[in-house]
Amino acid sequence: MDNNNNNNNEEIIEGQGFQPTPADPSLRYEIPEVLPLSTDQKPNESLIVNDKNATKIRCRLCSCLMVLSDVSKLVELQQFVHCSKQQQGADKGETLNWFWEIADMFKFENIGFSKTLGSLRYLTCADCEKEIVGFQNLPNPICYLAANRVKYD
Length: 153
Prior knowledge:
With 153 residues, the chain is mainly β. Helices cover 0% and strands 33% of the residues.
């Protein structure tokens, strides 16, 4: 028996071991690297009942459930928010005015937090982590989801 014979016909480079072939690209979930800026408008009145969200709030990219209905309050405040985690830079974002206010992080169904940057922690989808969807201004426990960076059902 020849010990140098490689049964799977894959080349093994000394010190690197087996090099698997990449997964089938057709099975991957494609997310654009450059996300469009949102249109910062007050959400439709049908999404608000008694000043709270009337529907579930989901990630606009992967549909992950972030907040159940009747949990957050719509507020108007001005805050600069970066476009995406990959595009963080001084000029890569927009000033938004409409946010869903969530009393504390335990009211979320799924959410991800960035490291603290100054007094801000950015919020992102816990599943895809592709876009910054809000912020928390520490030490305040209140979190804010950008109303136009999410979708509703």
